Amino acid sequence: MNNSFAEIIAKVKECGKKTVAVSVAQDEAVLEAVKEAKNLGIADAILVGDEEKIRAIAASIHMDLEGYEIIHEPDMVKASLVAVKLAHDGKADMYMKGIIDTKNFLKSVLDKEVGLRTGGVLSHVAVFEIPGIDRLLFLTDVAFMTYPTLEDKVHIINNTVPVCKACGVEVPKVAPLAAVEVVNPKMPVTLEAAELTRMNEEGQITGCIVDGPLSLDLAIDPEAAKHKGATNRKIQGDADILLFPDIHAGNQVYKAMVHMVSGMKNGCILTGTKVPVILTSRSDTFETKVNSIALAAVVAAEMQKNA
């Protein structure tokens, strides 16, 4: 099991360096991350965008472009289609957002001709390394799917379990979260959590252990589970995957961790696609972008191994 991003980066080096196609690469923060990923031996990059601007930014951050392939396409929408086609055609192992708005970036991901559709549902997973917690936490969905239905939640679990496995968690424990840990007919989220648990027990959701509904403290804190007498639960403060009821709950927990937890590290990818998609935001730190490339690289290696 990989309990830190340092271990994930080490695992990428074992798997072999991957290639990331960057959509509209003339972005200082993204080029800084790409440069570091190459220095760490995680990934090479194909930079698609305005070549003059890419070279100017690279010079300003002392980035040697020797060995990088640059594809000149000044039009942002066209550049995103060129970049995603590289991943679609197997010339890149991952696809990363540069300085293009999320809407147009996602349009390229979903393009029927050159995009990365698999026919399944797309979802987002954020991976956290938190001081005091002895494992990585996989939060989903905190950024993409707004109000997932029961069926959507099954897809989210199925998208997230392989990410856990790529990070060394062979049988991840999934906690469908609610405000309480008992079924309450007046709280539909708890009914769906119980149904996901039943589906897992009956073999409709496989490769993991599902136990819900669970409150967040029972999901991540063994002491809380002990004090609440939850000794009969399959998850007793040792959940790997935190499955949120909607984007509001997920996003608020995500941002609380990012802005209030000292020493935390995180990385994020979009899943359910032909290759991992690195969908970072402008506010993400340099380290988060590098971690996201590393996360995408181990997932890409796992996907290729199982292809």
Structure write-up:
It is a single chain. This protein has 307 residues and is α/β, with parallel strands linked by helices. The chain is elongated and about 60 Å long. The model has no long low-confidence stretch (mean pLDDT 95). The chain has a six-stranded mixed β-sheet, with helices on both faces. The chain folds into two domains: 5-117 and 273-306, Rossmann fold (3-Layer(aba) Sandwich); 123-260, Isopropylmalate Dehydrogenase (3-Layer(aba) Sandwich). The chain has eleven helices and eleven strands.
Lay out the secondary structure.
Elements lengths: L4 H11 L2 E6 L4 H12 L3 E7 L1 H10 L8 E4 L3 H13 L5 E4 L4 H8 L13 E7 L7 E4 L9 H17 L6 E4 L11 H14 L7 E2 L5 H5 L1 H6 L13 E3 L3 H14 L4 E7 L5 E2 L7 H21 L1
Parallel strand pairs: 1-2, 1-4, 2-3, 4-11, 6-9, 7-8, 7-9
Antiparallel strand pairs: 5-6, 5-10
Descriptive keywords:
single chain, 307 residues, alpha/beta, Rossmann fold, Isopropylmalate Dehydrogenase, 2 domains, six-stranded mixed beta sheet, five-stranded parallel beta sheet
